Amino acid sequence: xxxxxxxxxxxxxxxxxxxxxxxxxxxxxxxxxxxxxxxxxxxxxxxxxxxxxxxxxxxxxxxxxxxxxxxxxxxxxxxxxxxxxxxxxxxxxxxxxxxxxxxxxxxxxxxxxxxxxxxxxxxxxxxxxxxxxxxxxxxxxxxxxxxxxxxxxxxxxxxxxxxxxxxxxxxxxxxxxxxxxxxxxxxxxxxxxxxxxxxxxxxxxxxxxxxxxxxxxxxxxxxxxxxxxxxxxxxxxxxxxxxxxxxxxxxxxxxxxxxxxxxxxxxxxxxxxxxxxxxxx
Amino acid sequence: xxxxxxxxxxxxxxxxxxxxxxxxxxxxxxxxxxxxxxxxxxxxxxxxxxxxxxxxxxxxxxxxxxxxxxxxxxxxxxxxxxxxxxxxxxxxxxxxxxxxxxxxxxxxxxxxxxxxxxxxxxxxxxxxxxxxxxxxxxxxxxxxxxxxxxxxxxxxxxxxxxxxxxxxxxxxxxxxxxxxxxxxxxxxxxxxxxxxxxxxxxxxxxxxxxxxxxxxxxxxxxxxxxxxxxxxxxxxxxxxxxxxxxxxxxxxxxxxxxxxxxxxxxxxxxxxxxxxxxxxxxxxxxxxxxxxxxxxxxxxxxxxxxxxxxxxxxxxxxxxxxxxxxxxxxxxxxxxxxxxxxxxxxxxxxxxxxxxxxxxxxxxxxxxxxxxxxxxxxxxxxxxxxxxxxxxxxxxxxxxxxxxxxxxxxxxxxxxxxxxxxxxxxxxxxxxxxxxxxxxxxxxxxxxxxxxxxxxxxxxxxxxx
Lengths: 281, 465
Known about the structure:
The structure holds 2 protein chains of 2 kinds.
Chain A: H1 2-27, H2 30-60, H3 71-93, H4 99-115, H5 134-165, H6 182-214, H7 223-243, H8 250-272
Helix pairs in contact in A: 1-2, 1-4, 2-3, 3-4, 3-5, 5-6, 5-8, 6-7, 7-8
Chain B: H1 3-17, H2 20-39, H3 46-52, H4 55-64, H5 73-102, H6 110-115, E1 119-124, H7 129-142, E2 147-151, E3 154-161, H8 168-189, E4 191-198, E5 202-203, E6 205-208, E7 213-215, E8 220-230, E9 236-247, E10 250-258, E11 263-265, E12 268-289, E13 295-301, E14 306-307, E15 314-321, E16 330-335, E17 343-348, H9 354-357, E18 362-381, H10 385-404, E19 408-417, E20 420-429, H11 433-452, H12 454-464
Antiparallel strand pairs in B: 1-20, 2-3, 3-19, 4-6, 4-18, 5-8, 6-7, 8-9, 9-10, 11-12, 12-13, 12-18, 14-15, 15-16, 16-17, 19-20
Helix pairs in contact in B: 2-5, 5-8, 7-11, 8-10, 11-12
């Protein structure tokens, strides 16, 4: 399949982009930064082509469907969402340094899809439960929210690194000098979650609406559902702590890390550790 | 003496209920116990638990309600407490919000000016009255028409935008409560059951999960046909039950029920949930004339006379046996050979050689067995569902107001500075301060440009026109 070869190519491109962002961080050269940005846009374009190619291939096989239906396809799409959301933030924030903490997520996700023998890249026809338009709305909103949370996690790591090194009254040196101020990192953690949280909510709602059509119950306390709710609780705690108890900085950064751990468990843990209705991805 | 502590108890209880610490604590506890709920299988059979847990552990988990945790009294109690907390917090905060918005600070005193950020000032040539209209028009064009107050020679301008954003959080909270209300209605006034029907059968009752039965309200459901189709890979493509709804002697609706396409009628929803074989619908048999060796393929329905082309021989499949004495599927056939007594014999699918030894003019081979299906329909009644979706809409609207809008206020004051005028410009936003500071800066720069070089702008405008 051509699309799988594309995905492998994109995997190596993302590795290249990640290395470039790291080099930019290490050598603080503007040229490296620009190169990283350009390669990432190129990689995202190719990634989009890979997804479209797989879509077309599924039609050639006679049971066409959007490539959002199994573990492999969801990983490829998740990686796409991370890169896409990250690049939007980069355009908005006009800073490139976050890339070093966002692109590793995009790379690792697609690398897992492309290289793990446990994740099959076969295109299978849709089983009856998956034949629904809710599939698109549900998967897209969920993975856009996961991607926002991934970036929030990356920024939290940046915050904690910087907060640990930075001593009051002492000018920071080395790669940390490129980091945005602690205050703007803290704001960015919040802003990425402020995007991810409504998207996660819509993802859960579209999932329930779909479950109500397919299984006849909008909520069954299935492990996937429950873990998405646990994730929702963690970010709800984040928002309440920040809005009304005025938590800032380290504590909210740690909450964002816990939140992303819950995201990862919702996505992988539930499939590999627990069992339930939601067994496709 | 004894009254005072009581009152304290009540007020401190109220205080505890409306504290955000309780909210965060409850969310943490709910998250943690939910983890247990996903690790311990819920509502499984006792044997299954005993395979994993020791008998004592099983008993403890059972008593503590961990095996049906989401319906256990303490989980429901936690949810109820969260609701109370949410109501208490929201009502308390709503009052503050309402007061803030209904009594806006249209004119700020000096100390309040000092604490505001962002803030800018500008010296303007000429006396104050010359500038009033241009400040008002500038704000109206770029933000919103301001309220103008004059007091002691100073002119105050005030404008606000995005007031609704402050109500976003209440929409979200209301949404949560409405959803839980919908769930409660579903719990008390809804039910979930099953109907299993073989093709051609009619059901008038639903079997509930607990084994009880209730009648369908005023109608009957007949399964006309059930079909399964497969992809070329062998994976199932579609499960479809074609049903007819009958009221009295009348067919009122004829519909198909597929996965993801339930049927709703009179508040009940029917979902395609399972299927299976229930006997045999028909079989394809190869019937050979022993004399001529000529073979005919005959499709025979169970219990219906099947004729060979030409009509000189007929037979009936009278019975199907899934496994005849360990030899596999078999049909009991009644042979209706003319001028001979009717014969009864078995034809085995897996042993066609047995037919060679049987006397008679015809030999049977079973080519294909078409099973008769039963279709399992899940039947739900959940009057809470519309409420749940309403709550979801509230939440989404609330998120939009909360995260994508912000309540922004602008204050401008003009005061005399000798013969000239001092303009002070300040603003505040209850959220997204960084974005607001940029907006504020843009507005200030445009306003400044307009006031310091008015000719240029009107000229430009003239050119554009």
